[in-house]
Amino acid sequence: MRSLNSLEKRIEALESSIPFGADPLEFAISNLSDNDLGLLSEYRELHVAGFDTEEVRDMMGSESYDLAIAVMQKVNDDLERLTAPPSRKLVAGKKMRAVIDGRIGGTKRQRKSDPEPDMGIDNGAF
């Protein structure tokens, strides 16, 4: 069951990706059915005509009004999903894990206990 849910999420992610430069609102609206578009159009026309929410509900009927609100919520959810930045999990690679563990190159980190000996070489005296 877990693999089926994972597969569904991957398919949804592939289907939901929008082409570069496309308008997310146009993309979300293009996925709506004709019935959904009709409900949105009716709601918008009544709202633009100046009717308040209760008047729009009375004119459309409760069922159609609720469906129109559900369609708007779906479009809003699609917009949020399409415009959200991708979530990336940072996973340390083998080399990074070796550095973190202090084992890069197969050696262990050692503390400097004695200062380096002075060999009498002065690099700045030319």
Radius of gyration: 31 Å
- Major sheet attributes: none
Helix content: 55-70%
Low-confidence stretches: none
What's the shape? Answer: elongated
- C-alpha termini separation: 75 Å
Q: Mean of residue pLDDT?
A: 75
Number of helices: 6
Question: Hey, roughly how much beta strand do the residues contain?
Answer: under 5%
User: Count the strands?
Assistant: 0
Element-by-element helix/strand order: HHHHHH
Structural class: mainly alpha
Overview of this protein structure:
The chain is mainly α and 126 residues long. It has a domain at 23-106. Helices cover 60% and strands 0% of the residues. The radius of gyration is 31 Å and the shape is elongated. The model has no long low-confidence stretch (mean pLDDT 75).
